[in-house]
Design goal:
The protein has 307 residues and is mainly α. It has one domain (63-305). The protein is 68% helix and 0% strand. It has 11 helices and no strands. Helix 3 packs antiparallel against helix 5 (115-124), helix 3 runs parallel beside helix 9 and helix 6 (128-159) runs antiparallel to helix 8. The mean pLDDT is 83.
């Protein structure tokens, strides 16, 4: 029991460190895409930037607006952070710290509840921009979760399990069977993680950072860590579902899964640098008129063929 607790703590801090350096990687890659200098001042080529940012943010005062609902305002970032990092309990590593029999269902429950943290942050701040960001988060998450969940069941029907660790042990590239499922899944993942071109929840150009506009210091740090942690976890889930390459040597298999997850995370960054923000009505139209009918059709096709 003590070993499992230590493993959870070590894994938690490794994930936090990975998220911090993922933020630096994003800033440097966006700098290269836009042909400008990225962060390069702190230490060697900006490698100590996460530490500098962390110290700066944690040293700032967490100011609560006078008109805000103080309890919910302080609880919102903690709620969002807790459910974002609670997903990592089902990380399908060679020696899992906690074994879930139905880990896919746990993933669906945690990812759907997580949006309440965003709603709590936007509504409790009693700010028009924050409220609009929260409303957008609710409608966007509810809309895309339907297609997202339907697409998730397509590879699960093929593999025949609800356990992520068993999915990872299934030695087969599902993307070779159904590329269209992967493409729609990735679009839904972008919408679920509020990433460009579907970053309407933050909407810097019109909502001035949306639901987190009133947050600073430690609260803002929790929100950013939770958001980027969700991106990395979604990349890992994508790697397990569509690029399941297993190895008899557990350490080698873990390393291969990490490399594929990093490549998918890099795709999130490249898409942010390459595509402009979508229009909100087009976002909803894409979900209800394109992705939902196609995902249901593919789901029924997989069921009918008995795969």
């Amino acid at each position: 029991m003590m070993v499992q607790g230590i493993t959870c703590v070590v894994t938690f801090f490794i994930i936090l460190l990975g998220v911090a350096y993922f933020v630096v990687t994003e800033r440097k890659v966006l700098g290269m895409i836009q042909r400008r200098h990225g962060p390069n001042k702190p230490s060697l080529v900006g490698l100590l930037l996460p530490i500098a940012d962390g110290v700066k943010l944690l040293a700032k005062e967490w100011i609560v607006p006078t008109a805000a609902n103080q309890g919910l305002y302080l609880l919102g970032p903690v709620f969002f952070f807790f459910f974002s990092y609670g997903l990592w309990l089902v990380y399908p590593v060679g020696n899992p710290m906690i074994y879930f029999k139905l880990s896919v269902l746990y993933f669906l429950c945690m990812s759907s509840v997580k949006v309440f943290g965003v709603i709590m942050c936007g509504w409790s701040s009693n700010c028009q921009y924050g409220l609009l960001g929260a409303v957008r988060a609710a409608s966007q998450s509810i809309s895309y979760e339907i297609g997202f969940n339907t697409l998730l069941y397509c590879p699960l029907l093929y593999i025949g399990t609800y356990e992520l660790y068993e999915v990872r042990l299934f030695n087969g590239l599902f993307i070779l069977i159904s590329v269209e499922v992967f493409l729609m899944w990735f679009i839904c993942a972008l919408a679920e993680t509020n990433r460009t071109p579907f970053d309407f929840v933050e909407g810097e150009s019109e909502l001035v950072s949306g639901y987190m506009v009133e947050y600073g210091g430690f609260g803002f740090t929790l929100l950013v860590l939770a958001e980027y942690g969700s991106i990395i976890f979604m990349s890992m889930i994508t790697a397990v579902l569509f690029f399941s390459v297993c190895s008899e040597v557990l350490l080698l298999g873990d390393m291969m899964m990490v490399v594929i997850s990093v490549v998918i995370s890099y795709m999130f960054i490249v898409i942010r640098g390459a595509f402009p923000r979508y229009r909100y009505d087009k976002l909803m139209e894409l979900c209800w008129k394109v992705i939902l009918p196609m995902s249901l059709s593919l789901f029924m096709l997989f069921m009918a063929t008995g795969v």
